[in-house]
Amino acid sequence: MRSLLLLLPLVPAVLSEAVNGSESLVWGAYRPNLYFGLRPRVPQSLMTGLMWFGTQNYQSISKTRHTCEQGDGLDSYTWTNYDAREGGIQIIKDSLNNVKLTTELLKVPGGDHGGSWAARIKGEPINPDIPSRISTIFYAGLDGLGGIDMESEENENGVDGPVVLTGSSVDLDEFTLRIVDGPDNSGVLNGAHAQAFADRSGKTHVAGFRIPPGTIWQAKDHILQNIIQHAQGVIAPYRDPSVGQPDPSFVLQLSDEVYSGSSLYAIQKFFDGPFQFDVFFESASAKQKLTSTTLEEGIKAFKTSYDTRFDKLFPIPPSYQTSKLDSLKEFSKAITSNLIGGIGYFYGTSIVDKGFAYEWDQDDDTDEQDEDDKKKGARLTEPKALLTATPSRSFFPRGFYWDEGFHLLHVGEWDNDLSLEILKDWINLIDDNGWVAREQILGEEARSKVPAEFQTQVPTFANPPTLTMAVTAFIDRLKALSPGPSEQELGLDFGMGSSQVVMSDQKPQSEIRSRYLSDPELSLGYLRSIYQPLKRHYDWFRRTQRGQIKQYGRKARSRTEAYRWRGRSKDHVLTSGMDDYPRGPPHAGELHLDLISWMAFFTRTMRDIAQFIGETDDAAAFIEVEKAILDNIEDLHWSEENQMYCDVNVDDEDESYHVCDKGYLSLFPFLLSLLPSDSPHLGPILDMLRDPEHLWSPYGLRSLSASHPQFGQGENYWKGPIWMQMNYLALSALHKTYAAQEGPYQKRAQEVYAELRKNVIDNVHKEYERTGYVWEQYDAKTGEGRRSHPFTGWTSLVTLIISEKY
Ligand SMILES: *[C@@H]1O[C@H](CO)[C@@H](O)[C@H](O)[C@H]1NC(C)=O
């Protein structure tokens, strides 16, 4: 083995392409806004999607299912298993059309262009006693350079047997797509006027469209228009009521016209009862023909290996008391699968207004933009690419900056290297000034889901800096596997001799499944590559979100460390992430407790990274800043009178005062483990948190005290409802710090931790069973799921809470 290893440096060309494993991430369900939409992680490429509608009447075509919509009223749709490298299994329940669909995806590695895949779409009646008739349409379209042709013999009445498309594009090279029926399907053969349609019934119908580049995402419009036009001709002879209309299955069909040079192809099938069909995508360079057997056996093996791996990575500790162990396990699997199955690939322009500012945003020392930049007005940027998890497939199918740090904590526990790929894409969005837009609405498809007033991003607006969570979690995983890179590897020599990097043999390699975790050099290279942009980002925060101290005669040990969110309006601080949380009136002199706490956290995590990669000067500087911030949290934000941490504002007499609204905000120094465990301020925080009159509920911590005059008022977004990521932060602080470290409140912290954890898990699980969905937030009084659903972004953190991974 030694000699082989020594040979490795001689063949870097071969290795470099495959060295970080990103080739197994080329294909995925990267259109999470669709019930089932596959595409590669490549700009302007092949896009596929699934649509279906019921054929029990003529109306249900107007409710064709395609993009995930809460208005579709599906009972549920959930990936029961999903792995970004292997595939997934999704179950979609559509009672209105009496069909339960299963979509299976199997990724098959091979060749040089991202590999092949096979997908199976299965349907069965939910209620076998009533008809289950649906039409499915699978489409594939090529957005960029290249072409696709249909090989199957054209026939004006439809196609018998498989439909075969061949194509090629720059990144995917040559490929074949085959759509193949299962053995036991029954098409729709009977129904009103069946005789007249005998030639066309039971066949697969197709259409090919020439549409402008970049518009494949609008496939549904083209496809439905084709069906409706065709139907108008077919139905004309049946207008006379005495004749009666034919069965919709005979009418609502694609035209079976294929234009040469088409870039979009639709393949439509009609079913009566249970059915299945397979779609095979074969990358020519892989030289492997896929069959239904490959798919069947592959999915079976995938499910087994997934379940085994899941049990190992996210076990339910035996100490956890529940009578519903099996269902809790499936739930945990589903939320993890949906988080990872919710990862999307986005490419396109976004809208930025460089000159926008509220009057209170202006202050003298942060003006640094070019005159040119200050021109007001929203403009399109250059196109950018982003692989990212999404908070909600139906409601927020795009990248959100502060959600992403939480997403990556969870993703990284399942697939470390996937979390690094995603993080890298986010880091690439950091601009020359160090700014990243808090909502990533890239391209027209993503924009189509966002109301116009929320599309524009402003380069002075921030959002809670959570991305470094993913970096320190990665470093923690590295440290758990090895004592860390040797001084030699760091290019440092402290004269202490070099320590060997030894992989612990506690975890088998198959479980680690990570090239980064098994290759310290690769890891260091990665960390170094993201360090400078991260630092630029950090410096941007310190420069642009600074708050004023001396102007209002405030006394603080540090003269510089105070912070204020820019971009707040009168009633909202969208940039803080806690949109309508009560914050007092806008003022250029206000100081925000959550932001200064995030800055302490950001500084601390930057210190950890700097230390790990050997940037010792930087690390020393971060230590000083962190101390200054921690001092100022005490000096500026602690209200002795109210016994709590508060925002700070300025009154009409230019006097500084505390704005104290009991809720998540008041917890921040605790939530981010900034307080030492013997802090005298910990007691009052735990009291507030545990008090049912304030934040404590049987379902988790409320965002605003139940005794607050604004509790449950107005939009009631952050005025009471229970949010999972904040409960996760509280549990994490309790578990890792306050329940773990000795101190006057240790015992209390342990009790609160156990109770809170159980409340949160039981409620989210119960609501999932009751409603079929995971929700954006939970009602402060009843614990019922509220707002967007499914919301398998940070609500999925419940898996980490179950298995105590903080
Ligand atoms: C992995 O390698 C590919 C190809 O060289 C590169 O595009 C990608 O950014 C790398 N991923 C990471 C996380 O560094």
Automatic annotation (TrEMBL):
GO terms for molecular function: Glc3Man9GlcNAc2 oligosaccharide glucosidase activity. GO terms for cellular component: endoplasmic reticulum membrane. It is a single-pass type II membrane protein. Residues 291-804 form the Glycosyl hydrolase family 63 C-terminal domain. InterPro entries: 6-hairpin_glycosidase_sf, 6hp_glycosidase-like_sf, Glyco_hydro_63_C, Glyco_hydro_63N, Glyco_hydro_63N_sf, Glycoside_hydrolase_63. Residues 24-249 form the Glycosyl hydrolase family 63 N-terminal domain. Its main location: endoplasmic reticulum. Keywords: Endoplasmic reticulum, Glycoprotein, Glycosidase, Hydrolase, Membrane, Signal, Signal-anchor, Transmembrane, Transmembrane helix. Belongs to the glycosyl hydrolase 63 family. This is Mannosyl-oligosaccharide glucosidase. It comes from Cerrena zonata. The lineage of its organism: Eukaryota, Fungi, Dikarya, Basidiomycota, Agaricomycotina.
